[in-house]
Design a protein that fits this description.
This protein is an alpha+beta fold and 887 residues long. It folds into six domains: 1-35; 69-218; 231-481, no CATH class; 598-605 and 613-701, no CATH class; 720-768, SH3 type barrels (Roll); 776-856, Alpha-Beta Plaits (2-Layer Sandwich). It is built from 28 helices and ten strands. It has helices at 2-36, 46-98, 106-117, 126-156, 162-218, 231-245, 248-261, 263-281, 283-294, 305-318, 321-335, 340-365, 371-375, 380-386, 390-409, 416-440, 456-478, 481-534, 542-545, 557-560, 562-584, 618-645, 654-679, 684-699, 703-718, 758-763, 790-803, 839-856, and strands at residues 598-605, 611-617, 726-729, 732-739, 743-748, 753-757, 766-768, 776-785, 814-821, 824-833. It has a five-stranded antiparallel sheet with strand order 6-5-4-3-7. Strands 8-10-9 form a three-stranded antiparallel sheet. Strands 1-2 form a two-stranded antiparallel sheet. 21% of the residues are buried. It is found in: Cell membrane. It comes from Zophobihabitans entericus. Keywords: Cell membrane, Membrane, Signal, Transmembrane, Transmembrane helix. It is a multi-pass membrane protein. One of its GO terms (cellular component) is plasma membrane.
């Protein structure tokens, strides 16, 4: 019974566990099923889709209407631009028709100038480019919307009933038509904007042509009425109007308030003021720096070119803050667009800022310990005399420049004829005082080859510079105000450039002087060491103790470095010429009258074989002269330029470098002549027959000249002779001094110049004593009696060769007993000289030594007492024959 009960309990327990496990598994399965089963999808609202499509179509319709308005506006702009182009072209035609009468009527000029003031402003193309880019982006968006619309149709249509589907398709069709219309309108907008851009370009070109023509016609025409008795009245009236009637001060106060309240302009102005404050704080340190540097300048062991570079850089920086403040102030005034007085004054302030910087740079360079006096060595009295009117330049010239520009820009030059002209005349008088002070101080405008600033070209430049302000005053009084202002401004800018290049010239000259002084100092130290070594290393010498310090050698730089300075001078002149061309090229249209002056006619051949008439004008002749001037300068200074710039860095022999320089000169000369001749109507097609005839002449009558020319080229490249070589040709011996195209110049021992044709050096026998080695051998024949000790004679000759200062130790001297003739011993002494110039001194000195030794040892010389045989060219083999009584 107990066993059955226990079994029953076990079965019951097992059944309960199984039931609980089944419940747990069932609940877990339900949970997993809930997690895996997706949520129920929301119910699709088709009415919402239709409403969204309708809203999109409404927005697209608004965009289409806006596009049509913009397209209409663009077309109207095109019409306005076309009207403006016609107006500008009519103005240009009027200028061309009435231009020749401008010099006869001032009223006509005033009328035409009023028409120029009514010209439209130049349009800007940048906004059009931005609009085109924006439209292209919208066009791409429309295309994307079309693609998205087609994809949505494929998804939505199966879920709609028949009634909803009809409405949906209608809205989709409407949206597709709107998108396509928008794309077409975008294409039309881009096309019309492109046309508008082209029209703007045409308008800009037309306006440029009008202003160029106006500049050409009006430049040499009076732009204001001449000064008359009514001018003082008009001047007083305008002064009263500017200071009392016009709101000048209120506009300046308003512009000042706008500048201070604007963040950008206020920060710029504040930074400029801080820059000026720092400048004044460093003023004392700058003067201390100049004082320290001046103690080192001129001393061989302490002077360095970096001292000059530092002075220049620091002076430029110290002169910069106040002009920067002046320029920032001008920019701030120009940014106040609501106040015309401030804008006009801003233009004047900006124009005066560079002039102020130039004046301040000159002042810092002219400090007592500054660049001009200490580094360049200019006399202090002259520098102070030149800077006599510096305060006048700062406190008078700068305000006058500012006022002249300001009155020219205010209300289209309303006060230019009165107040502007008065300020300009005062400015010219101030320039007269300044240029006179510079001229009296002896400031050179051009340095010649000898380093002298008092030359003809410098005097001509000073005459132009001194007379320019007077001529400007006269032109302004006669009514040519704009012309005088432009020409005087260009002239003063040219003077500034010229003075800048002059300072660069003296800086390069100082660098050469420092290098030369260092070389001379090193040589002096070497000579001193050699002298000390020759005094048996004596440490106590009263006489030499006073000469331990080596004085700075006085070097004439213009003589020692004349070629280098000539090169520097030529390069700077070329730079000045290029700067002048660039500076005055803006006035090219004003000098276009030279193109209207025809000197002669010429025939010009075209590619098709036809000939056209070519007018050779005065401008063509001037251009040809300019090209020839540049060509001549290049040819004259090319050897030094190639040597310093290129050839010295290449491993070339002197002859090769000379050949390259010579051929380069010929090529440049030929190219320059061809270009210059082409401007005056002489081109290759016209001179080719001359070249052909010249070739025939070379073959017959000029064959010797042609042979010498070709021989000159062979000499330059083959280099059988070089400048400085000692040669013997025919019966002539001398040094080569020049190798030209046709002939070579030889200087003989009598210092006579012999011009030898180049053909002789190529076709005849030539002895070059220094082609590869300048060392030459000298053979001396010395006799002795038959009973003399031959070994003693050999020893005497060897000692004489060793004691002779001109005899080289390598190769060493040799002595031989070469023959016995008629009871006489003949000895041969073979020695070597370093160069041809030592041959005769060597023979003289060694003869004296031999005679002295003979006398000391009581040796007799048989008749003849001394025989020498100089084999300069070479010895023949075989027994030597000695002639008695000859050298």
């Amino acid at each position: 019974m107990n066993v059955e009960n226990s079994r029953y309990r076990k079965v019951k327990r097992y059944f309960v566990k199984a039931l609980l496990s089944s419940i747990l598994l069932f609940s877990t399965g339900l949970a997993l099923a809930e997690e895996i089963t997706p949520p129920e999808e929301p119910k699709f609202d088709f009415e919402l889709v239709l409403q969204d499509l309708a809203d999109q179509n409404s927005e697209l319709k608004q965009q289409r209407a806006l596009q049509e308005e913009q397209l209409s506006y663009i077309i109207n702009e095109q019409n306005n631009i076309s009207t403006q182009i016609n107006h500008v072209q009519n103005t240009l035609n009027t200028l061309d028709e009435q231009g020749e009468w401008l010099s006869f009527s001032t009223a006509l000029g005033e009328t035409l100038r009023q028409q120029l003031l009514r010209l439209p402003e130049k349009p800007k193309s940048q906004p059009l480019d931005e609009d085109i880019a924006e439209i292209r982006v919208k066009q791409l968006n429309y295309n994307d919307q079309l693609v998205t619309l087609d994809e949505n149709v494929e998804i939505i249509e199966p879920m709609a009933n028949s009634k909803q589907l009809a409405s949906y398709r209608r809205l989709v069709r409407e949206q597709r038509d709107l998108l396509k219309a928008l794309q077409l309108n975008s294409d039309a907008q881009i096309l019309e904007l492109t046309k508008l851009k082209i029209a703007n370009k045409q308008l800009i070109d037309a306006i440029d042509n009008v202003f160029e023509a106006a500049h050409r016609y009006f430049f040499w025409v009076a732009d204001v009425n001449p000064v008359s008795t009514s001018y003082p009245v008009s001047l007083a009236r305008d002064i009263g109007y500017v200071f009392f009637s016009a709101d000048t001060f209120s506009q300046l106060l308003g512009a000042t308030g706008e500048i201070l309240t604007s963040v950008g302009t206020f920060i710029l102005l504040l930074l400029a003021i801080v820059f000026v404050v720092i400048h004044f704080r460093f003023q004392a340190r700058y003067l201390q720096f100049l004082e320290q540097n001046s103690t080192r300048v001129g001393k061989v062991t302490q002077d360095h070119y970096m001292l000059t570079i530092r002075v220049v850089c620091y002076s430029l920086l110290m002169a910069l803050p106040i002009p920067v403040l002046w320029g920032v102030l001008g920019y701030c005034l120009k940014s106040a667009w609501d106040y015309p007085v401030a804008v006009a004054l801003g233009h004047g302030v900006n124009a005066a800022a560079p002039v102020l910087w130039v004046f301040m740079i000159s002042a810092y360079f002219a400090e007592p310990k500054g660049l001009f006096i200490t580094h360049f060595g200019w006399p202090s009295e002259r520098v102070q005399s030149a800077m006599k009117y510096y305060r006048l330049s700062v406190w008078v010239v700068i305000p006058l420049v500012m006022l002249v520009i300001a009155f020219g820009n205010y209300h289209n030059g309303q006060f230019a004829a009165t107040l502007g002209r008065f300020c300009f005349i005062l400015l010219c008088f101030a320039l007269i005082f300044m240029t006179t002070a510079l001229h009296k101080a002896g400031v050179p405008l051009y340095i010649d080859k000898k380093g002298n600033g008092n030359n003809l070209f410098s005097r001509i430049l000073w005459i132009i510079l001194l007379s320019a302000p007077w001529l400007a005053i006269l032109a302004a009084c006669l009514g040519y105000l704009s012309t005088s202002q432009v020409l005087l401004g260009r002239l003063e800018a040219s003077v500034v450039i010229w003075f800048g290049l002059l300072v660069i010239y003296f800086m390069i000259r100082r660098w050469m002087l420092i290098q030369k002084r260092k070389i001379e100092f090193e040589r002096a130290k070497q000579r001193r060491l050699e002298r000390l070594a020759q005094r048996n290393k004596s440490f106590v010498e009263d006489d030499s103790s006073n000469n331990d310090s080596v004085d700075e050698p006085v070097v004439d730089l213009d003589v020692i470095s004349s070629q280098s300075l000539q090169l520097v001078r030529s390069i700077l002149v070329m730079i000045a010429l290029i700067c002048m061309i660039v500076l005055w090229s803006e006035l090219h249209s004003a000098f276009a009258f030279m193109e209207n002056i025809t000197l002669w006619h010429s025939k010009a051949a075209t590619a098709g074989g036809t000939e056209l008439d070519q007018n050779i004008t005065l401008a063509s002749v001037f251009i040809a002269i300019l090209v020839m001037t540049i060509t001549v300068q290049l040819v004259k200074n090319l050897p030094a330029l190639l040597e310093l710039g290129i050839l010295q860095h290449l491993d070339l022999t002197p002859g090769t470098g000379y050949a390259i320089s010579t051929l380069t000169k010929y090529i440049i000369l030929m190219i320059g002549c061809i270009i210059a001749f082409s401007f005056i109507g002489i081109d290759w097609s016209k001179i080719q027959w001359l070249i052909a005839a010249l070739g025939v002449g070379l073959g017959f009558g000029l064959q010797e000249i042609f042979a010498n020319f070709v021989s000159g080229l062979i000499i330059l490249f083959e280099k059988p002779i070089r400048i400085g070589d000692t040669v013997t040709i025919r019966d002539l011996t001398g040094n080569i001094t020049k190798i030209n195209t046709r002939a070579t110049t030889i200087v003989d021992w009598d210092r006579k110049e012999i011009v030898m044709p180049n053909k002789a050096f190529v076709t005849e026998q030539l002895i070059n004593w220094s082609l590869s080695d300048s060392i030459t051998r000298i053979v001396l024949t010395v006799p002795a009696t038959i009973d003399a000790d031959s070994n003693l004679i050999i020893e005497i000759l060897k000692e004489a060769a060793i004691d002779c200062s001109y005899v080289l130790n390598d190769p060493e001297p040799q002595v031989f007993l070469v023959d016995i003739q008629e009871g006489i011993q003949l000895f041969e002494l073979r020695v070597f000289a370093a160069e041809m110039g030592h041959r005769m001194p060597l023979r003289s000195e060694i003869h004296q030594l031999i005679l002295s030794e003979y006398r000391k040892r009581d040796l007799e010389l048989p008749f003849p007492p001394l025989q020498t045989n100089l084999e300069a060219i070479g010895r023949k083999s075989g027994r030597r024959t000695y002639n008695v009584g000859t050298l």
